[in-house]
Design goal:
One of its GO terms (molecular function) is 3'-5' exonuclease activity. One of its GO terms (biological process) is nucleobase-containing compound metabolic process. The protein has 35 helices and 17 strands. It is α/β, with parallel strands linked by helices and about 900 residues long. The strands form 4 sheets. It has a 6-stranded mixed β-sheet with strand order 1-4-3-2-5-6, with helices on both faces. Strand 11, helix 32 and strand 12 form a beta-alpha-beta unit.
Amino acid sequence: MSCTTSDSAGLDPCVLRDELLELWHLKDQQMLHLAALGGFSRLPEPLEDLLSILEGCPGKQKGRSHTAGHCILMEFQAWRKKHPQVTLSALSEQQASTLQQRALLLVADNQSTFIESLVDIYQLKSVDGTILQQHIVRLQALNLYKEAAMLGMKLQRQKELDLEEMCVPLILLNKLSLAESFVTGHSHLEKHLVTLLDSWCHPSFSLEEICRRFSRLSVSRHCMDQIQPKMLTKHVFRLMEKFNIDQGLCPNALHKRRLDTLRFLMYSRFMEKSMTEENWCDHVQYVVEDDPQLQVQLVQMLVKHAGLEKASQWSLKYNVPRNQLPIGVWETQQDLPPHLQQVDPNKPEQTKSMPPPSTCEKFYQVPLTEERIHLVDTPEVLSRCQKVVLKEGGVVGVDMEWQPTFGCSSSQQVALMQLAVTDQVFLLDVCAEGFGQHPETVSFIRSLFSSKNVLKLGYSTSGDLRCVLSTWPQFSEEPLVTQGVLDLVNVHQKIQRSKVNRTQNGSKEVLVGEGSAEKGLSLLVQQVLGRPLDKREQMSNWKKRPLRASQIRYAVADAYCLLEVYTVLKSNPAHFGLPDDLQNISSRQSEKSKGKKPKEQQTEQIKQPQGKEECQRAQRVSRPHSDKEKDLLCGEKPSADSPPLPPQQLRVVCDNMLQGLGRTLRCLGVDVVMLENSDDHRVAAKLARAEGRVILTCGQPFLTLRSQVGEGRCLSLDCSEKAKDQAVRVLRHFNVQLTPSDIFSRCQVCNSNRYAAVSRQDMARMLQQKGFLQEWDTECAQDEETTPGLTLDLPRYSQHCQWVALSDLDPDTMTFPGGAPLQLHSVPPGLLPRVPHFYVCTRCGKVFWEGSHYDRVVSMFEELLHVSAPESAAEPTDVALQDSSVKSSQTWNVTSE
């Protein structure tokens, strides 16, 4: 219907809307801006007419920043700044209330920036609280939980809303971040959310009961997998730190973390045998503390791993009641001789000088005598240390040790700081009473790190500096300036990326991917100096005094080896594929961050892995500088002239650290199986062998998985990259020929490619049947094709899918033969007038429709798309895949985000 107007009556909003939409589709932003500014000035009632325009814009539901409605609203905001007289207060109370009600209906369907503008223009915060609350409750009743939470936040009504009714559905839908935003800034709500998550960590927690409480909510398997104790515990500890909440309020998560740590300690001591008896005893006592349940579980584990005698000793130490002891422990207690009835983790160390010859031959040894190692625990000794360490032009190896907390505490404080120079090593005992926080100690550390005339060598210095800030808060109040620091982890990454073949001491060096058990600094020392570090004391109780001789040897070696590695690398950098000036080598992350704004760089730094094992990133594949640098595979790469491969023929299995990549590849038509969070990495190898898939993994699991599958069947990727970049590299490596018709040919949720086509009329009928739609105007659909099944217009990816008849759907239960329910709740009723056809995944029941997401995916992967010639369908249909009616603005939307 056309609309006309006269200058005297002002511009009709229908005319302005049509003009702006036409310019929007032509992508003429400049003309749209000019037309909007002039058009708004000619509207008789700008505030009322704006709502009419927005209500008539297509695609307002689940609005994105590039929709026409959003663009028009932003233009109105710009126009309004020049016309401050256009306010709601200029209208009568009745008129204002009517406009606010209409604005609320728009708010419910759109994204954050859209909502903010409407709240501002129509002063929605001033609406009666009862009306706002009723509106939010109505959204919840329609299962629009995300929209309800967003509206509640924008209107600042969090305190008046029931937290569990608002946040539990968000958590079930894997939108915990939105729940966090909902409570942030409200201390009682923050505490309530964290304690709620902690209650879910209790062994008796039943997810089924929660799902029954929100029975109208359809929870996917992926979302269900996120609600398991390990993930929940991780979130609880993260939020405790974020909101500064006392650990005592989260006993279940704390118990779960300690129990997991206890299992780890058992495995390290009795299976891997990588932990000394002294260290094991120290950590067990720290973890178990005064928790009676953990004490009982400790005894039970010891019976399995170490036998009845050791279990009896620890049961006596903690006075475990007889009725809670495993079978045989009580009887063994009675037979223990007196000298074995007590656990004695503090027995003196036998060897206080040199380690045994076997250790000297196997591991790197420091070429210093005992008298060249100095313990610094007083200001007087520190003064002598300062004169040596801060000598201008000097080189100092810097390392630190701290007490392992196994994730039970977020705060890790320095216990020992090692400073190595050419002929001696200083050990700063930060735990010594009155020394760690002494003004002279603090001043010395500040001077050391800020001196640009003293070269400080470290390995993963970001982790060390993080502990420094935790130990000395004054460095946060008056920021610690770091100059003259060379992080050898960056040098190590450069060596790993080098193509130069090197030998050291006549033997082939151990490189990542060649089965080396070493990693991090120990691997670098082995590559450069020939022998790795002895890391058995790494996880010591570094706060316990006096330190054992073996701990001192480990601490000295960790700092002094940095000097020797630097000396060797500097003497012959070309041998290791390095530039002449090692200090010019920056981290790969820093190189990628060049050109970014300071705020973006800060965000990247926060996301970098922390701690001593940061060099595990050296095992990842760096971003190639050209298309020819496809060094993803650690096995044999496909030949350069390998034939093009359609996405449907690439079958992969992604480990649980690459789920984002897995969903992206599914979006592009690749057959992807993704491991669940609870799956062992070895499951990937089983699937790869059984189904002929390629394993996509990252980090340490690669070394294990590579040997379990055929040559070239295991791919290592960089976890720090975005899923889009990972996907591009995988497709290029396998020479996958991606076409527009491949996009969305698989369900991103469940990997299925079997769909049922549903007409608008059938969808409206089913929505009415299940109570999701009250009224439906049949006149707008009377000319539609009513024959079900494949007679509907199929989307562009139809040739890569299997289409089933809608008659396969059980009309009573609305389920497909496999048991998947049709997710009708996710279809907004307001979508029906604009969407003629819907497409349903028959495996998971997810509903899709043509929207705006397709163009974004095409834009993301346009460098890989092959569109030189039209594609023909696999079999004749009455649908022309290249039909001009399929506009470029049409695409595929997922109903729940």
